[in-house]
Write a structure and sequence with these properties.
Layout (H helix, E strand, L loop, with lengths): L1 H19 L6 E6 L3 H12 L3 E7 L9 E2 L2 E2 L15 E4 L7 H11 L9 E2 L4 E2 L4 E2 L4 E2 L4 E2 L4 E2 L4 E2 L4 E2 L4 E2 L4 E2 L4 E2 L4 E2 L4 E2 L4 E2 L4 E2 L4 E2 L4 E2 L8 E3 L4 E4 L17
Parallel strand pairs: 1-2, 1-5, 6-9, 7-10, 8-11, 9-12, 10-13, 11-14, 12-15, 13-16, 14-17, 15-18, 16-19, 17-20, 18-21, 19-22, 21-23
Antiparallel strand pairs: 3-4, 23-24
Length: about 250
């Protein structure tokens, strides 16, 4: 019942405090999602020396019996309310087919703004005039040039290059080695796939997907999926998939 659920939550936190001899100068952070990205972000949390990872929240019940990085899944995402106010949170739920779903899950949790940690890996280079919203993650090897703006709950997973004066909307995710030129606007809940490049001064609409390795040289409308070099639409917001026309003389 409810009592056993919460006693498991607190015994997990207690185990964390004992195992890690919790340094009171480091703020404990709970990662939402115990998948591969969550476990990666958890280790980056520890690398900051300012925060320390205290475990995970995940709605997959099967994950609750396992330890990840030696840390427990303390309960489902809703159990954030049972944790003391000094625990902060970071989201790890991103995926090219589920950006809207994960974004609405995070909003629905209604975690207050001040309880979200902003995690910047010590091997990232973020210039002093950059603005970063609460709950965002900037992974190792990432460079964020002056006057760029990163919204709330964004993820720059690693080796991302975000040039000057570019703006990432809330819940946008850049997978590894994405390159975004200057003065680009990336809409809310957009997923930019690994090794994609976006030319300067372009606008990418909200909810778009930029395929892996895409070379984006034209604006992308809201909700459209583009792929290729040069990038072309392959899926419209109404889930219509565009098939490339076959060239004469070639069998499809």
């Amino acid at each position: 019942g409810m009592g056993s659920k919460y006693s498991a939550l607190f015994s997990g936190v207690r185990r964390f405090l004992i195992m890690n001899k919790h340094d009171p100068r480091n703020t404990p952070v709970i990662v939402i999602g115990a998948g591969g990205t969550g476990r990666y972000i958890a280790q980056c949390v520890d690398r900051t020396k300012k925060f320390c990872c205290a475990g995970f929240l995940d709605d997959d019940i099967e994950k609750r019996s396992q330890l990840y990085n030696g840390l427990a899944v303390l309960g489902g995402t809703d159990t954030w309310r049972e944790l003391d106010d000094d625990y902060l949170f970071i989201n790890s739920l991103y995926g090219e087919k589920a950006m809207q779903r994960y974004g609405s899950l995070i909003r629905r949790l209604s975690i207050p703004d001040e309880r979200w940690a902003t995690i910047i890996d010590p091997d990232a280079t973020v210039f002093s005039t950059v603005k970063i919203g609460r709950g965002s993650f900037v992974g190792p090897g990432t460079v964020v040039e002056p006057n760029a703006v990163i919204g709330s709950h964004c993820a720059l997973l690693g080796n991302v290059y975000l040039a000057h004066d570019s703006v990432l909307g809330d819940f946008a995710c850049c997978a590894n080695s994405v390159s975004i030129s200057g003065c680009v606007s990336v809409g809310e809940a957009t997923f930019v796939g690994a090794n994609a490049s976006i030319r300067q001064h372009l606008k990418i609409g909200a909810g778009g997907v930029i395929g892996m390795g895409a070379v984006v040289v034209k604006p992308v409308s809201q909700g459209v999926t583009v792929a290729g070099n040069p990038a072309k639409p392959i899926k419209q917001p109404n889930n219509e998939t565009k098939t490339a026309p076959t060239k004469p003389g070639k069998t499809p």
